[in-house]
Amino acid sequence: MKTEIKKPSYEVLCEAAELIKKGEVVAIPTETVYGLAADAYNPDACAKIFKAKGRPQDNPLIIHICDLDMLKNSVKEIPPLALTLAEHFWSGSLTMIFPKKDIVPDTTSGGLDTVAVRMPDNEDTLNLIKMCGVPLAAPSANLSGSPSPTTAQHVYADMNGRIPLIIDGGECKNGVESTVICFTDGGTGIKVLRPGVITAEMLSRFAKTETDKNVFAKPDENEKVISPGVKYKHYSPRADITIIETDSDEKLAEFLNSKNDGGTYGVIFGSEKGIEVPTISYGSTAQEQAHNLFAVLRKTDELGAKRAYVRCPEKTGVGTAVYNRLLRAAAFKTIIL
Q1: Which CATH superfamily, name and number, covers 240-336?
Q2: Which of 11, 103, 114, 197 is most buried when burial is the number of CB atoms within 10 A of its CB?
Q3: Where does L-threonine bind (predicted)?
């Protein structure tokens, strides 16, 4: 299959809509990361997403909508709290889980009786959804397990020959996937299943909010989890990733220099001194780190790194999302200095 990259225009969006209506998969830009989009109501089309990504069949797809009518058409129940959150955070990087209607096939939901829904904050993608007339299932547009793509070029590196079209909307604004929540206490409470730029602190203004234990821990082997995606390794480049937790620039430099074998890189905040191994900065603030993380992880492969030691971010606010992604990229390998 020939894969084309095209800048968004009315004509390109029409072309993408026609491909999706025919059951094909198209890569789309969002404010979080690029997604692989197909008709969420078409099980055969969604099966092509799983095939293109090499994604486990029990890992459900988030569906993307352009208005609340699409939400009402797809789910059985909408708690009043969900409408309040939608009013404040949609269009935006918040995904909410609801009991699904039968119109959402099991292929899309990974066999679950629930479906995850969000309204992306990207005008071109919202227009495309409207043109298609159906929600679009759209997980990240990368090979399963590799770092999520934040540019069309990242998508092309993973999907060339697998899909017909990539819509190049430029670099993604946020750089990490959406916050995923479910509702507790009869729809009056919130549980964060995957952190993002919409933080638990922000959500707690609207309801009692808790964070699922698997955000920061590897699930037990036979544990039944609310969000099946937490079972799998994610976001990993070919380089071996390890998280370094330390408050000391000196200790970090000493450790990294002891690993100076020509294949080691340090992924740092950018201000550390005395480090002799090659380094890459992924930002001095949590927002910068979220925006840059996946691109930096991909860069370690471009540079031929055998291993990379990533300095641990703050574990509050948006830093929670960065830390969550790093834990899975590193398969939970952490060194405390």
Answers
A1: Threonylcarbamoyl-AMP synthase, C-terminal domain (3.40.50.11030)
A2: 197
A3: 32, 64, 138, 178
Name the pTM for this structure: 0.93
Q: Please report where in the chains the tokens 């055969």 appear, as a residue.
A: 44
Contacts of 275 (CB under 8 A, 6+ apart): 252, 253, 256, 257, 266, 268
pLDDT, tens digit, for every residue of 104-154?
Answer: 999 999 999 999 999 999 999 999 999 999 999 999 999 988 899 999 999
Q: If one looks up domain 4-231 in CATH, what number appears?
A: 3.90.870.10
Token digits for 186?
């009869």
Q: Which residues belong to the annotated binding site for L-threonine?
A: 32, 64, 138, 178
Binding residues for ATP: 55, 59, 114, 118, 140, 148, 194, 235
For residues 292 and 331, give the distance between their C-alpha atoms in angstroms, rounded to a whole number: 20
Could you tell me the sign of the dihedral formed by the alpha carbons of 18, 23, 26, 28, in that order?
Answer: positive
- Mark the binding-site residues, compressed into ranges: 32, 55, 59, 64, 114, 118, 138, 140, 148, 178, 194, 235
